[in-house]
Write the structure tokens for this entry.
Amino acid sequence: MKLTQEEQEMLDGKHGRSTRKAMEILAALGVIYGAERMVPVTSVQVAGVSYDNLGEAGLHFLVDMAEGGGQARVLTTLNPAGMDIENWQALGIDAAFAERQTQVIEAFARMGVVTTCTCTPYLAGNTPKPGEHIAWAESSAVCYANSVLGARTNREGGPSALAAALTGRTPEYGYHLDENRAPGLTFEVLGRLEQTLEFGALGKAIGKQLEATEKKPVAYIRGISQASLENMKSFCASLATYGGAALFHIEGVTPEAGQFAPPAVSCCITQADLDEAIQSMNDASSEEVDFVSLGCPHLSLNEIAHIANLLEGQQVVKEFWITTARPTKVLADQLGYTRVIEASGAKFATDTCCVVAPIQGRFKALATDSAKACYYAFAKNKFKTMFKPFDEVVLEALGGRKR
Ligand code: F3S
């Protein structure tokens, strides 16, 4: 790879031990993927934050990078941690885990990382502009950044994203290059898309078809006239989970779609495909559901307002986690939504989520409106799942009682 003088100095250790290690990681990736040079990044999102996933080895790596003088050179935020940093006791997290998780967060803070722990950094001040080169980990956010925001990122891992933060660079390959952003397969959507749940089902239906292809082309999607921010974050999470996709284009909706003609090879997504996807994520009965969670990806303020409206004056009868970013929670506090929600017995699980928190064995079945949460509820925690529209998930927490 051709490095600039500053990049070469980083690699030679002139900017400290951690910066050298970071540049070594990036240079090695660049060679593997055939990058010709590094590209400066404006924003980083680091994943691998929950101690439940990191373990001792991951914690030691982060502490070592902090002790080696690593400092973030660009705006860098974090993925969800394994607990609510301020309110972990209320979620049943044990003290030993909390101590280790706190050390993880402190190591990031020492490196100048903004310790906002969320998978929707674009709702919490880390919002890149179209065309900006960034280095994000967290598959749902990567898909959102590339497709909905029009920024450019590969699907980074935790160490490569941290390396990008400490150097302000990433190797230029993959989705940083124009030629890899062109669509290769058209999907005609014929089914009904009204609720966020249906966008999650669409992500699974398209994702399954992409997974079956050899080259995993970028999808060009037609037949969607409009989609809210909440619809898009749900769709991105699902498509990334079930199809490994990091970029798609929706005709008339996403910013780069107009640059391309629809690819000639096309598939249809029918109502039967959506119904089948929904059905495939429903194997738990109401009697079995003992855990309810909304906020995968993390909830927007609009969604929290809607939950407060649904819960006002009522009491939940099941463990109900509302997962969101700390800055969103602060706004919910100020607007009175938190008071209403907590009076119902529901719990904010800020900074964390129902997938990365250490809850294996605590519950049997999860009710959610998130296709991604359904996948990991089973894959990571062996929970059964109930996949229902947003309002029905809230109703499930209330024991099925209408007001
Ligand atoms: Fe976010 Fe956790 Fe879902 S990180 S996308 S809420 S699995």
Q: What stands out?
A: The mean pLDDT is 97. Residues 17-33 form the longest helix (17 residues). The first strand starts at residue 38 and ends at 40. The pocket of FE3-S4 cluster is lined by residues 79-80, 119, 140, 237, 296-298, 323, 353, 355-356, 372-373, 376 (CB under 6 Å).
